[in-house]
Design a protein that fits this description.
single chain; 164 residues; alpha+beta; Aminopeptidase; 37% helix
């Protein structure tokens, strides 16, 4: 079930982000590695948590996947793209992998965006994580382009058209 997260979930979001880093390292990806300042990572999560809605997928009373719905990032998208009706997703983490919890959450967010008459679901993700790129492609997203922004390892831009 799709839920909106509240203050009681903040610690969970931080924990799931930490766990995601460990899981990604075990898969051999460079995502979230390379000397990240974890204090800054968690400060960024708090900033987003304070300013944007986070949603979660709940199963049997447990939140098993989380995602932030944020403003699109001007570093990556053109002014024309930024002006289009869209839902922009970020900080997409699952508690347990291989159970389709992420797919369930993503599907619910897509349905909500369609109901809200959005044209797009958009995101940027880690540029070198080709498994993540394939995940989004399996869910119908198309790769728009990859943008190199100094100091950012994300920049692989994906979108899903909703108004077809």
């Amino acid at each position: 079930m799709l839920i909106t997260l509240d203050e009681s979930h903040r610690k969970l979001v931080h924990q799931v982000r930490d766990d995601a880093g460990e899981w990604l390292a075990s898969k051999g990806t460079d995502q979230y590695r390379g000397g990240l300042d974890m204090r800054q990572v968690h400060a960024n999560i708090d900033r987003d948590f304070d300013n944007f809605p986070f949603v979660g997928w709940e199963v049997d009373g447990r939140v098993v996947a989380v995602m932030a719905i944020i403003d699109p990032e001007a570093d990556f998208w053109t002014p024309e793209e930024l002006a289009e009706p869209q839902t922009y997703i970020s900080r997409f983490f699952v508690v347990e992998h291989g159970k389709d919890y992420g797919s369930a959450l993503l599907g619910a967010v897509i349905r909500r965006a369609k109901d809200d008459r959005k044209r797009w679901i958009r995101l940027n993700c880690w540029s070198t994580n080709t498994r993540l790129h394939a995940y989004y492609a399996r869910h119908g997203f198309e790769h728009v382009r990859t943008v190199d922004v100094p100091g950012r390892m994300s920049g692989a831009l994906f979108q899903l058209r909703l108004d077809k």
